[in-house]
Amino acid sequence: MNNKELIASISVKLNAPKSVVAMLLETTVATCAQLLVEDKTIGFQSFGNFEVRKKDERLSVHPSTQIRTLIPPKLVVNFKQSNILKDKLKDMPHHD
Amino acid sequence: MIKEKISSQEIIDLVASKASVSKRAAEEFLKVMIASIEEGLLAGETVKIKSFGTFKLQWNEPRKSVNIQTKEEILINGYYKVAFVPDATLKEQVNEPFAHLEPVELDTDPSKNDLIENTDPVSDPLRIFNEQAFEIKNLISEIQALSKKPSTEIHEVEPIRDIYKEEIKQIPENEVEEDETDSGSGIKDEKKDLENVIEETETQPEISEEEVTEILKSIPEDKIDVVESEVESIKESKRDAELTLKEEEQPKIHDIVSTAEPISTPADQPKEESSVIKEPTPENNASLLTSELPSTPYLDNIKPPVRNKKLKLVLLILLLVIGSGTGLFIYFASTGDNSVENITRNISVSEMINTISGWITPAPKPAQKPVKVVIPKDTADYESTEQIQPVDSLQLLFDNPRVYTEFIASERIHAGNRLTIMSKRYFKNKEFWVYIYEANKDKITNPDNIAVGTFIRIPKIDPRLIDTSNPRCLIKAKELHDIYIK
Protein backbone atom coordinates (compact mmCIF):
# COMPACT_ATOMS: atom_id res chain seq x y z
CA MET A 1 0.00 0.00 0.00
CA ASN A 2 1.61 3.21 -1.07
CA ASN A 3 0.86 6.78 -0.12
CA LYS A 4 -1.91 7.24 -2.70
CA GLU A 5 -3.67 4.05 -1.70
CA LEU A 6 -3.47 5.04 1.94
CA ILE A 7 -5.03 8.41 1.20
CA ALA A 8 -7.75 6.73 -0.82
CA SER A 9 -8.45 4.28 1.97
CA ILE A 10 -8.65 7.05 4.58
CA SER A 11 -10.81 9.28 2.41
CA VAL A 12 -13.30 6.46 1.87
CA LYS A 13 -13.52 5.80 5.59
CA LEU A 14 -13.75 9.45 6.53
CA ASN A 15 -16.00 10.26 3.66
CA ALA A 16 -13.80 13.23 2.94
CA PRO A 17 -12.16 14.54 -0.23
CA LYS A 18 -8.70 13.14 -1.02
CA SER A 19 -7.12 16.58 -1.12
CA VAL A 20 -8.11 17.26 2.48
CA VAL A 21 -6.85 13.85 3.58
CA ALA A 22 -3.60 14.40 1.72
CA MET A 23 -3.19 17.77 3.40
CA LEU A 24 -3.91 16.31 6.83
CA LEU A 25 -1.53 13.42 6.30
CA GLU A 26 1.18 15.78 5.22
CA THR A 27 0.66 17.95 8.26
CA THR A 28 0.73 14.94 10.54
CA VAL A 29 3.93 13.68 9.01
CA ALA A 30 5.53 17.12 9.25
CA THR A 31 4.46 17.44 12.89
CA CYS A 32 5.82 14.03 13.76
CA ALA A 33 9.09 14.75 12.01
CA GLN A 34 9.40 18.06 13.82
CA LEU A 35 8.78 16.41 17.17
CA LEU A 36 11.31 13.70 16.40
CA VAL A 37 13.91 16.27 15.44
CA GLU A 38 13.28 17.90 18.82
CA ASP A 39 14.22 14.54 20.30
CA LYS A 40 10.77 13.69 21.58
CA THR A 41 9.07 10.34 21.67
CA ILE A 42 5.77 10.06 19.92
CA GLY A 43 3.34 7.52 21.26
CA PHE A 44 0.32 6.51 19.24
CA GLN A 45 -2.17 4.72 21.39
CA SER A 46 -2.75 1.17 20.29
CA PHE A 47 -0.15 1.47 17.55
CA GLY A 48 3.33 2.05 18.90
CA ASN A 49 6.07 4.50 19.79
CA PHE A 50 8.37 6.46 17.56
CA GLU A 51 11.58 7.55 19.12
CA VAL A 52 14.99 8.81 18.11
CA ARG A 53 17.91 6.69 19.17
CA LYS A 54 21.56 7.54 19.00
CA LYS A 55 23.85 5.02 17.42
CA ASP A 56 27.32 5.44 18.85
CA GLU A 57 30.38 5.76 16.74
CA ARG A 58 32.08 2.50 15.94
CA LEU A 59 35.00 0.97 14.13
CA SER A 60 34.23 -1.13 11.14
CA VAL A 61 36.81 -3.34 9.50
CA HIS A 62 36.43 -4.22 5.88
CA PRO A 63 36.60 -8.01 5.81
CA SER A 64 38.69 -8.32 2.67
CA THR A 65 40.80 -5.16 2.58
CA GLN A 66 41.19 -4.89 6.38
CA ILE A 67 40.69 -1.15 6.15
CA ARG A 68 39.44 0.17 9.45
CA THR A 69 36.87 2.91 9.18
CA LEU A 70 35.52 5.05 11.95
CA ILE A 71 31.78 5.29 11.49
CA PRO A 72 30.49 8.49 13.08
CA PRO A 73 27.58 8.49 15.50
CA LYS A 74 24.11 9.02 14.08
CA LEU A 75 20.55 9.50 15.10
CA VAL A 76 17.94 7.11 13.79
CA VAL A 77 14.19 6.83 14.13
CA ASN A 78 13.07 3.71 15.87
CA PHE A 79 9.56 2.31 15.99
CA LYS A 80 8.33 -0.08 18.60
CA GLN A 81 4.93 -1.61 18.20
CA SER A 82 2.50 -1.51 21.08
CA ASN A 83 1.28 -4.67 22.74
CA ILE A 84 -2.19 -4.11 21.35
CA LEU A 85 -0.86 -4.19 17.80
CA LYS A 86 1.30 -7.19 18.66
CA ASP A 87 -1.72 -9.09 19.88
CA LYS A 88 -3.58 -8.27 16.73
CA LEU A 89 -0.71 -9.57 14.65
CA LYS A 90 -0.50 -12.75 16.71
CA ASP A 91 -3.58 -14.09 15.08
CA MET A 92 -2.06 -13.76 11.66
CA PRO A 93 -1.03 -17.08 10.23
CA HIS A 94 2.53 -17.41 9.07
CA HIS A 95 2.90 -18.25 5.44
CA ASP A 96 6.05 -18.10 3.51
CA MET B 1 17.90 11.61 30.15
CA ILE B 2 14.21 10.85 29.95
CA LYS B 3 12.74 11.86 26.66
CA GLU B 4 9.61 13.90 26.63
CA LYS B 5 6.81 11.67 25.46
CA ILE B 6 4.16 13.11 23.22
CA SER B 7 0.83 11.36 23.49
CA SER B 8 -1.65 10.98 20.65
CA GLN B 9 -3.75 13.70 22.21
CA GLU B 10 -0.95 16.22 21.89
CA ILE B 11 -0.38 15.20 18.30
CA ILE B 12 -4.04 15.72 17.60
CA ASP B 13 -3.84 19.19 19.10
CA LEU B 14 -0.77 20.11 17.09
CA VAL B 15 -2.17 18.79 13.81
CA ALA B 16 -5.48 20.57 14.43
CA SER B 17 -3.77 23.90 15.02
CA LYS B 18 -1.36 23.50 12.10
CA ALA B 19 -3.92 22.33 9.56
CA SER B 20 -6.49 24.75 11.02
CA VAL B 21 -9.13 22.05 11.46
CA SER B 22 -11.16 21.14 14.46
CA LYS B 23 -9.62 18.86 17.04
CA ARG B 24 -12.38 16.37 16.52
CA ALA B 25 -11.65 16.15 12.81
CA ALA B 26 -7.96 15.77 13.50
CA GLU B 27 -8.64 13.07 16.08
CA GLU B 28 -10.86 11.18 13.71
CA PHE B 29 -8.33 11.52 10.96
CA LEU B 30 -5.52 10.13 13.10
CA LYS B 31 -7.63 7.20 14.28
CA VAL B 32 -8.62 6.35 10.73
CA MET B 33 -5.06 6.78 9.55
CA ILE B 34 -3.73 4.31 12.09
CA ALA B 35 -6.61 1.95 11.40
CA SER B 36 -5.85 2.08 7.69
CA ILE B 37 -2.17 1.38 8.29
CA GLU B 38 -3.03 -1.54 10.51
CA GLU B 39 -5.45 -2.79 7.94
CA GLY B 40 -2.83 -2.66 5.27
CA LEU B 41 -0.34 -4.44 7.49
CA LEU B 42 -2.81 -7.12 8.47
CA ALA B 43 -3.45 -7.70 4.79
CA GLY B 44 0.24 -8.52 4.56
CA GLU B 45 1.10 -5.39 2.65
CA THR B 46 3.78 -2.82 3.22
CA VAL B 47 2.47 0.63 3.99
CA LYS B 48 4.39 3.56 2.71
CA ILE B 49 3.85 7.10 3.88
CA LYS B 50 5.44 9.77 1.76
CA SER B 51 8.46 11.51 3.32
CA PHE B 52 7.90 9.58 6.56
CA GLY B 53 8.71 5.94 6.10
CA THR B 54 7.59 2.44 5.37
CA PHE B 55 5.81 0.01 7.69
CA LYS B 56 6.13 -3.63 6.99
CA LEU B 57 5.74 -6.89 8.76
CA GLN B 58 8.69 -8.90 9.82
CA TRP B 59 8.35 -12.54 10.75
CA ASN B 60 10.29 -13.57 13.81
CA GLU B 61 11.03 -17.27 13.84
CA PRO B 62 9.94 -19.32 16.85
CA ARG B 63 12.81 -19.96 19.21
CA LYS B 64 13.61 -21.78 22.39
CA SER B 65 14.29 -19.97 25.59
CA VAL B 66 14.81 -20.89 29.23
CA ASN B 67 12.82 -19.57 32.13
CA ILE B 68 15.44 -17.99 34.35
CA GLN B 69 13.68 -18.90 37.60
CA THR B 70 12.40 -22.39 36.91
CA LYS B 71 15.06 -23.28 34.32
CA GLU B 72 12.34 -24.75 32.20
CA GLU B 73 12.59 -24.61 28.47
CA ILE B 74 9.94 -22.54 26.82
CA LEU B 75 9.15 -22.28 23.15
CA ILE B 76 8.52 -18.75 22.03
CA ASN B 77 6.11 -18.84 19.14
CA GLY B 78 6.96 -17.13 15.94
CA TYR B 79 5.33 -13.74 15.59
CA TYR B 80 5.02 -10.80 13.31
CA LYS B 81 6.60 -7.54 14.19
CA VAL B 82 5.93 -4.19 12.61
CA ALA B 83 9.17 -2.87 11.25
CA PHE B 84 9.48 0.78 10.38
CA VAL B 85 12.06 2.00 7.91
CA PRO B 86 12.29 5.78 7.97
CA ASP B 87 12.28 7.61 4.70
CA ALA B 88 15.51 9.27 3.52
CA THR B 89 14.13 12.75 4.16
CA LEU B 90 13.12 11.86 7.72
CA LYS B 91 16.49 10.23 8.31
CA GLU B 92 18.29 13.37 7.23
CA GLN B 93 16.05 15.60 9.30
CA VAL B 94 16.61 13.53 12.42
CA ASN B 95 20.33 13.05 11.87
CA GLU B 96 21.01 16.73 11.23
CA PRO B 97 23.16 17.24 14.35
CA PHE B 98 25.56 14.60 13.06
CA ALA B 99 25.18 15.30 9.35
CA HIS B 100 28.58 16.95 9.10
CA LEU B 101 30.36 13.81 10.25
CA GLU B 102 31.79 11.42 7.75
CA PRO B 103 33.28 7.97 8.01
CA VAL B 104 37.03 8.29 8.41
CA GLU B 105 39.43 5.69 7.17
CA LEU B 106 41.90 5.13 9.95
CA ASP B 107 44.48 3.05 8.14
CA THR B 108 46.42 4.57 5.33
CA ASP B 109 48.46 1.39 5.14
CA PRO B 110 47.72 0.63 1.49
CA SER B 111 49.32 3.90 0.42
CA LYS B 112 52.27 3.22 2.72
CA ASN B 113 52.65 -0.21 1.19
CA ASP B 114 52.68 1.38 -2.23
CA LEU B 115 55.45 3.67 -1.12
CA ILE B 116 57.47 0.75 0.15
CA GLU B 117 56.93 -1.08 -3.10
CA ASN B 118 58.05 1.97 -5.02
CA THR B 119 61.23 2.32 -3.02
CA ASP B 120 62.02 -1.39 -3.21
CA PRO B 121 63.71 -1.41 -6.63
CA VAL B 122 65.82 1.51 -5.51
CA SER B 123 66.91 -0.08 -2.26
CA ASP B 124 67.45 -3.53 -3.80
CA PRO B 125 70.92 -2.86 -5.21
CA LEU B 126 71.79 -1.23 -1.91
CA ARG B 127 70.73 -4.32 -0.08
CA ILE B 128 72.81 -6.45 -2.43
CA PHE B 129 75.73 -4.11 -1.74
CA ASN B 130 75.33 -4.48 1.98
CA GLU B 131 74.98 -8.23 1.80
CA GLN B 132 78.04 -8.59 -0.37
CA ALA B 133 80.03 -6.22 1.78
CA PHE B 134 79.07 -8.30 4.77
CA GLU B 135 80.09 -11.52 3.04
CA ILE B 136 83.43 -10.11 1.99
CA LYS B 137 84.06 -8.82 5.48
CA ASN B 138 83.35 -12.28 6.81
CA LEU B 139 85.78 -13.82 4.33
CA ILE B 140 88.48 -11.37 5.25
CA SER B 141 87.91 -11.92 8.95
CA GLU B 142 88.19 -15.65 8.27
CA ILE B 143 91.52 -15.10 6.61
CA GLN B 144 92.61 -13.08 9.60
CA ALA B 145 91.38 -15.78 11.94
CA LEU B 146 93.27 -18.43 9.98
CA SER B 147 96.47 -16.53 10.35
CA LYS B 148 96.04 -16.66 14.12
CA LYS B 149 94.84 -20.27 14.20
CA PRO B 150 98.09 -22.06 13.41
CA SER B 151 99.74 -20.59 16.51
CA THR B 152 97.15 -22.37 18.60
CA GLU B 153 97.41 -25.47 16.46
CA ILE B 154 100.99 -25.97 17.53
CA HIS B 155 99.71 -26.22 21.07
CA GLU B 156 97.09 -28.63 19.94
CA VAL B 157 99.59 -30.74 18.13
CA GLU B 158 101.87 -31.15 21.11
CA PRO B 159 99.38 -33.01 23.25
CA ILE B 160 98.79 -35.32 20.32
CA ARG B 161 102.46 -36.04 20.29
CA ASP B 162 102.25 -36.80 23.99
CA ILE B 163 99.52 -39.27 23.29
CA TYR B 164 101.72 -40.94 20.73
CA LYS B 165 104.46 -41.03 23.27
CA GLU B 166 102.21 -42.65 25.79
CA GLU B 167 101.03 -45.18 23.28
CA ILE B 168 104.54 -45.99 22.39
CA LYS B 169 105.34 -46.39 26.07
CA GLN B 170 102.33 -48.57 26.65
CA ILE B 171 102.97 -50.85 23.78
CA PRO B 172 106.43 -51.90 24.87
CA GLU B 173 105.21 -52.51 28.41
CA ASN B 174 102.62 -54.89 27.12
CA GLU B 175 105.24 -56.56 25.07
CA VAL B 176 107.41 -56.75 28.13
CA GLU B 177 104.68 -58.59 30.01
CA GLU B 178 104.20 -61.00 27.16
CA ASP B 179 107.81 -61.59 26.38
CA GLU B 180 109.12 -61.53 29.94
CA THR B 181 109.84 -65.22 29.90
CA ASP B 182 111.92 -65.04 26.73
CA SER B 183 114.52 -62.37 27.44
CA GLY B 184 114.55 -59.39 29.86
CA SER B 185 117.61 -57.55 28.58
CA GLY B 186 116.50 -57.61 24.94
CA ILE B 187 113.21 -56.05 25.86
CA LYS B 188 114.90 -53.36 27.85
CA ASP B 189 117.01 -52.56 24.85
CA GLU B 190 113.94 -52.35 22.72
CA LYS B 191 112.38 -50.07 25.28
CA LYS B 192 115.42 -47.83 25.27
CA ASP B 193 115.41 -47.72 21.51
CA LEU B 194 111.77 -46.75 21.48
CA GLU B 195 112.40 -44.07 24.07
CA ASN B 196 115.15 -42.71 21.90
CA VAL B 197 112.76 -42.60 19.01
CA ILE B 198 110.30 -40.72 21.18
CA GLU B 199 113.00 -38.30 22.19
CA GLU B 200 113.76 -37.75 18.56
CA THR B 201 110.16 -37.02 17.79
CA GLU B 202 110.06 -34.66 20.71
CA THR B 203 113.06 -32.76 19.51
CA GLN B 204 111.83 -32.68 15.97
CA PRO B 205 109.32 -29.83 16.43
CA GLU B 206 112.09 -27.62 17.77
CA ILE B 207 114.16 -28.36 14.71
CA SER B 208 111.17 -28.12 12.41
CA GLU B 209 111.03 -24.35 12.71
CA GLU B 210 114.56 -24.21 11.42
CA GLU B 211 113.79 -26.76 8.76
CA VAL B 212 110.70 -24.91 7.66
CA THR B 213 112.40 -23.23 4.76
CA GLU B 214 113.57 -26.57 3.46
CA ILE B 215 110.21 -28.18 3.96
CA LEU B 216 108.60 -25.19 2.36
CA LYS B 217 110.42 -26.00 -0.83
CA SER B 218 110.15 -29.76 -0.60
CA ILE B 219 106.83 -31.13 0.62
CA PRO B 220 103.74 -28.95 0.31
CA GLU B 221 104.70 -27.11 -2.84
CA ASP B 222 101.15 -27.07 -4.12
CA LYS B 223 99.86 -25.45 -0.97
CA ILE B 224 102.52 -22.80 -0.95
CA ASP B 225 101.82 -22.05 -4.59
CA VAL B 226 98.20 -21.61 -3.79
CA VAL B 227 98.90 -19.29 -0.93
CA GLU B 228 101.52 -17.41 -2.85
CA SER B 229 99.28 -16.98 -5.87
CA GLU B 230 96.62 -15.79 -3.52
CA VAL B 231 98.99 -13.32 -1.95
CA GLU B 232 99.98 -12.13 -5.38
CA SER B 233 96.40 -11.76 -6.48
CA ILE B 234 95.67 -9.73 -3.42
CA LYS B 235 98.80 -7.79 -4.21
CA GLU B 236 97.35 -6.92 -7.55
CA SER B 237 93.95 -6.02 -6.25
CA LYS B 238 95.15 -3.97 -3.34
CA ARG B 239 98.63 -2.84 -2.65
CA ASP B 240 97.98 -1.52 0.79
CA ALA B 241 96.06 -4.55 1.82
CA GLU B 242 98.89 -6.67 0.51
CA LEU B 243 101.22 -5.62 3.27
CA THR B 244 98.91 -6.73 6.00
CA LEU B 245 97.75 -9.82 4.17
CA LYS B 246 101.24 -10.97 3.36
CA GLU B 247 102.21 -10.62 6.94
CA GLU B 248 99.24 -12.74 7.77
CA GLU B 249 100.01 -15.34 5.13
CA GLN B 250 103.67 -15.84 5.85
CA PRO B 251 103.40 -17.15 9.37
CA LYS B 252 100.56 -19.27 8.19
CA ILE B 253 102.74 -20.98 5.65
CA HIS B 254 105.21 -21.77 8.39
CA ASP B 255 102.54 -23.13 10.60
CA ILE B 256 100.88 -25.17 7.96
CA VAL B 257 104.19 -26.78 7.18
CA SER B 258 105.14 -27.30 10.79
CA THR B 259 101.82 -28.90 11.61
CA ALA B 260 101.81 -31.01 8.49
CA GLU B 261 105.31 -32.36 8.83
CA PRO B 262 105.71 -33.97 12.26
CA ILE B 263 102.41 -35.85 12.29
CA SER B 264 100.80 -37.07 9.13
CA THR B 265 97.17 -37.19 10.35
CA PRO B 266 96.43 -33.47 10.82
CA ALA B 267 97.80 -32.79 7.35
CA ASP B 268 94.23 -32.72 6.03
CA GLN B 269 93.37 -29.75 8.18
CA PRO B 270 95.74 -27.26 6.62
CA LYS B 271 94.62 -28.44 3.21
CA GLU B 272 91.10 -27.56 4.01
CA GLU B 273 92.18 -24.23 5.36
CA SER B 274 94.13 -23.41 2.27
CA SER B 275 91.25 -24.47 0.09
CA VAL B 276 88.96 -22.20 2.07
CA ILE B 277 91.21 -19.29 1.34
CA LYS B 278 91.64 -20.45 -2.20
CA GLU B 279 87.94 -20.47 -3.03
CA PRO B 280 86.78 -16.90 -2.61
CA THR B 281 89.70 -14.65 -3.34
CA PRO B 282 91.20 -15.88 -6.62
CA GLU B 283 87.73 -16.08 -8.12
CA ASN B 284 86.98 -12.51 -7.25
CA ASN B 285 90.36 -11.35 -8.32
CA ALA B 286 90.09 -13.17 -11.61
CA SER B 287 86.76 -11.54 -12.30
CA LEU B 288 88.27 -8.28 -11.19
CA LEU B 289 91.05 -8.64 -13.68
CA THR B 290 88.75 -9.60 -16.51
CA SER B 291 85.95 -7.19 -15.83
CA GLU B 292 87.61 -4.11 -14.46
CA LEU B 293 90.90 -3.97 -16.26
CA PRO B 294 89.95 -3.83 -19.94
CA SER B 295 88.29 -0.47 -19.44
CA THR B 296 91.02 1.08 -17.32
CA PRO B 297 94.81 1.08 -17.39
CA TYR B 298 94.66 -0.55 -14.03
CA LEU B 299 97.48 -3.03 -14.41
CA ASP B 300 99.84 -0.50 -15.89
CA ASN B 301 99.33 1.75 -12.95
CA ILE B 302 99.86 -0.86 -10.36
CA LYS B 303 102.49 -3.23 -11.75
CA PRO B 304 105.45 -0.88 -11.45
CA PRO B 305 106.18 -0.47 -7.76
CA VAL B 306 105.11 3.07 -7.08
CA ARG B 307 106.32 4.31 -3.76
CA ASN B 308 104.09 7.30 -3.42
CA LYS B 309 101.28 5.67 -1.52
CA LYS B 310 99.09 8.72 -1.31
CA LEU B 311 98.96 9.12 -5.06
CA LYS B 312 98.05 5.45 -5.34
CA LEU B 313 95.28 5.81 -2.83
CA VAL B 314 93.73 8.72 -4.67
CA LEU B 315 93.93 6.81 -7.95
CA LEU B 316 92.40 3.76 -6.37
CA ILE B 317 89.48 5.63 -4.85
CA LEU B 318 88.86 7.31 -8.20
CA LEU B 319 88.80 3.92 -9.89
CA LEU B 320 86.45 2.60 -7.26
CA VAL B 321 84.02 5.42 -7.83
CA ILE B 322 84.13 4.94 -11.60
CA GLY B 323 83.94 1.17 -11.31
CA SER B 324 80.98 1.10 -8.96
CA GLY B 325 79.28 3.83 -10.96
CA THR B 326 79.58 1.91 -14.22
CA GLY B 327 78.51 -1.26 -12.45
CA LEU B 328 75.40 0.47 -11.18
CA PHE B 329 74.67 1.95 -14.58
CA ILE B 330 74.88 -1.47 -16.22
CA TYR B 331 72.80 -2.94 -13.45
CA PHE B 332 69.99 -0.46 -13.98
CA ALA B 333 70.20 -0.66 -17.74
CA SER B 334 70.21 -4.44 -17.91
CA THR B 335 67.03 -6.48 -18.30
CA GLY B 336 68.21 -10.08 -18.75
CA ASP B 337 68.72 -12.28 -15.71
CA ASN B 338 72.13 -13.61 -16.83
CA SER B 339 73.50 -10.16 -17.33
CA VAL B 340 72.18 -9.15 -13.94
CA GLU B 341 74.11 -12.00 -12.35
CA ASN B 342 77.32 -10.96 -14.06
CA ILE B 343 76.85 -7.41 -13.02
CA THR B 344 76.13 -8.28 -9.44
CA ARG B 345 79.48 -10.06 -9.42
CA ASN B 346 80.93 -6.90 -10.91
CA ILE B 347 79.41 -4.91 -8.10
CA SER B 348 80.66 -7.37 -5.53
CA VAL B 349 84.21 -6.86 -6.74
CA SER B 350 83.97 -3.12 -6.65
CA GLU B 351 82.29 -3.33 -3.30
CA MET B 352 85.10 -5.53 -2.00
CA ILE B 353 87.62 -2.95 -3.04
CA ASN B 354 85.48 -0.35 -1.36
CA THR B 355 85.48 -2.19 1.90
CA ILE B 356 89.20 -2.79 1.76
CA SER B 357 89.85 0.84 1.06
CA GLY B 358 87.39 1.64 3.82
CA TRP B 359 89.86 0.22 6.33
CA ILE B 360 92.47 2.70 5.32
CA THR B 361 90.44 5.77 4.45
CA PRO B 362 86.78 6.68 4.84
CA ALA B 363 85.62 5.40 1.45
CA PRO B 364 82.95 7.19 -0.59
CA LYS B 365 79.66 5.73 0.52
CA PRO B 366 78.16 3.60 -2.25
CA ALA B 367 74.70 4.08 -0.75
CA GLN B 368 74.56 7.65 -1.93
CA LYS B 369 75.24 6.86 -5.56
CA PRO B 370 72.05 5.04 -6.57
CA VAL B 371 70.04 7.79 -4.94
CA LYS B 372 71.90 10.31 -7.01
CA VAL B 373 71.28 8.31 -10.14
CA VAL B 374 67.59 7.75 -9.62
CA ILE B 375 66.23 10.86 -8.00
CA PRO B 376 67.12 13.41 -10.64
CA LYS B 377 64.98 11.45 -13.09
CA ASP B 378 61.98 11.61 -10.81
CA THR B 379 62.28 15.28 -10.12
CA ALA B 380 62.63 15.92 -13.81
CA ASP B 381 59.40 14.03 -14.36
CA TYR B 382 57.57 16.07 -11.77
CA GLU B 383 58.78 19.27 -13.27
CA SER B 384 57.68 18.27 -16.72
CA THR B 385 54.21 17.30 -15.51
CA GLU B 386 53.87 20.57 -13.71
CA GLN B 387 54.84 22.47 -16.76
CA ILE B 388 52.36 20.60 -18.91
CA GLN B 389 49.40 21.44 -16.70
CA PRO B 390 47.70 24.49 -18.11
CA VAL B 391 46.43 27.31 -15.95
CA ASP B 392 42.74 27.56 -16.77
CA SER B 393 40.07 30.04 -15.81
CA LEU B 394 38.88 27.86 -12.94
CA GLN B 395 42.35 27.82 -11.46
CA LEU B 396 42.42 31.59 -11.67
CA LEU B 397 39.05 31.68 -9.95
CA PHE B 398 40.44 29.48 -7.20
CA ASP B 399 43.56 31.52 -6.75
CA ASN B 400 41.92 34.94 -6.75
CA PRO B 401 40.75 36.21 -3.38
CA ARG B 402 37.00 36.00 -3.14
CA VAL B 403 35.02 39.17 -2.44
CA TYR B 404 31.51 38.85 -1.13
CA THR B 405 29.26 41.75 -1.98
CA GLU B 406 25.96 40.09 -2.80
CA PHE B 407 24.03 37.92 -0.43
CA ILE B 408 21.25 35.53 -1.22
CA ALA B 409 19.99 34.92 2.31
CA SER B 410 20.65 35.51 5.95
CA GLU B 411 20.17 33.32 8.95
CA ARG B 412 20.43 33.48 12.70
CA ILE B 413 22.40 30.70 14.35
CA HIS B 414 20.38 28.55 16.71
CA ALA B 415 21.47 25.62 18.81
CA GLY B 416 22.72 22.75 16.73
CA ASN B 417 22.98 24.79 13.58
CA ARG B 418 26.19 24.53 11.62
CA LEU B 419 27.75 26.17 8.63
CA THR B 420 28.01 22.81 6.92
CA ILE B 421 24.27 22.28 7.26
CA MET B 422 23.62 25.73 5.82
CA SER B 423 26.04 25.04 3.03
CA LYS B 424 24.27 21.84 2.18
CA ARG B 425 20.95 23.66 2.09
CA TYR B 426 22.10 26.55 -0.06
CA PHE B 427 24.92 25.11 -2.15
CA LYS B 428 23.89 21.44 -2.26
CA ASN B 429 27.17 20.33 -0.69
CA LYS B 430 28.41 20.75 2.84
CA GLU B 431 32.02 21.20 1.71
CA PHE B 432 31.24 24.73 0.52
CA TRP B 433 30.70 25.97 4.08
CA VAL B 434 34.13 27.57 3.80
CA TYR B 435 32.73 30.27 1.54
CA ILE B 436 30.01 31.13 4.06
CA TYR B 437 32.72 31.29 6.67
CA GLU B 438 34.85 33.56 4.49
CA ALA B 439 31.92 35.92 4.00
CA ASN B 440 31.24 36.07 7.75
CA LYS B 441 34.76 35.94 9.06
CA ASP B 442 34.31 39.17 10.99
CA LYS B 443 31.54 37.61 13.09
CA ILE B 444 32.82 34.09 13.50
CA THR B 445 35.82 33.45 15.67
CA ASN B 446 35.65 29.68 15.66
CA PRO B 447 33.80 28.03 12.78
CA ASP B 448 33.37 24.91 14.90
CA ASN B 449 31.56 26.78 17.63
CA ILE B 450 29.52 29.75 16.56
CA ALA B 451 27.71 31.71 19.25
CA VAL B 452 23.95 31.17 19.24
CA GLY B 453 22.16 34.17 17.78
CA THR B 454 24.97 35.15 15.43
CA PHE B 455 23.62 36.69 12.28
CA ILE B 456 25.03 34.86 9.27
CA ARG B 457 24.74 36.11 5.71
CA ILE B 458 24.82 33.57 2.93
CA PRO B 459 26.89 35.00 0.09
CA LYS B 460 26.22 34.73 -3.59
CA ILE B 461 28.99 32.63 -5.06
CA ASP B 462 30.10 32.13 -8.64
CA PRO B 463 28.27 28.96 -9.71
CA ARG B 464 31.50 27.65 -11.25
CA LEU B 465 33.05 27.69 -7.79
CA ILE B 466 30.34 25.59 -6.19
CA ASP B 467 29.81 23.09 -8.98
CA THR B 468 29.10 19.90 -7.06
CA SER B 469 29.73 17.80 -10.16
CA ASN B 470 33.23 19.20 -10.58
CA PRO B 471 35.67 17.35 -8.34
CA ARG B 472 38.13 20.23 -8.49
CA CYS B 473 35.64 22.51 -6.73
CA LEU B 474 35.31 19.97 -3.96
CA ILE B 475 39.08 19.59 -3.72
CA LYS B 476 39.49 23.36 -3.49
CA ALA B 477 36.82 23.56 -0.79
CA LYS B 478 38.54 20.79 1.12
CA GLU B 479 41.85 22.60 0.87
CA LEU B 480 40.25 25.70 2.36
CA HIS B 481 38.65 23.51 5.00
CA ASP B 482 42.07 22.22 6.01
CA ILE B 483 43.34 25.78 6.23
CA TYR B 484 40.53 26.98 8.48
CA ILE B 485 40.24 23.87 10.65
CA LYS B 486 43.44 22.89 12.31
Layout of helices and strands, plus pairs?
The complex is a heterodimer of chains A (96) and B (486).
Chain A: H1 3-14, H2 18-37, E1 41-44, E2 48-55, E3 58-61, E4 68-71, E5 74-81, H3 83-90
Antiparallel strand pairs in A: 1-2, 2-5, 3-4
Helix pairs in contact in A: 1-2
Chain B: E1 5-6, H1 8-19, H2 23-42, E2 47-49, E3 53-60, E4 63-66, E5 73-76, E6 79-86, H3 88-94, E7 104-105, H4 109-179, H5 184-218, H6 221-237, H7 239-260, H8 268-278, H9 280-292, H10 298-302, H11 309-333, H12 337-360, H13 368-388, H14 393-399, E8 407-412, H15 419-427, H16 433-439, E9 455-459, H17 471-484
Antiparallel strand pairs in B: 2-3, 3-6, 4-5, 8-9
Structure in words:
The complex is a heterodimer of chains A (96) and B (486). Chain A contains three helices and five strands, in the order H-H-E-E-E-E-E-H. With 96 residues, chain A is of the alpha+beta class. Chain A has one domain: IHF-like DNA-binding proteins (HU Protein, Chain A), CATH 4.10.520.10. In chain A, strands 1-2-5 form a three-stranded antiparallel beta sheet. The model of chain A has no long low-confidence stretch (mean pLDDT 87). Chain B folds into three domains: 91 residues, IHF-like DNA-binding proteins (HU Protein, Chain A); 186 residues, no CATH class; 92 residues, Membrane-bound Lytic Murein Transglycosylase D, Chain A (Roll). In chain B, the strands form three sheets. Chain B has a three-stranded antiparallel beta sheet. In chain B, a hairpin with a 3-residue loop joins strand 2 and strand 3. The longest helix of chain B is centred in the N-terminal third of the chain and has 71 residues. The chains are: A alpha+beta (96), B mainly alpha (486). At the A-B interface, helix 1, helix 2, strand 1, strand 2 and strand 4 of A face strand 1, helix 1, helix 2, strand 2 and strand 3 of B.
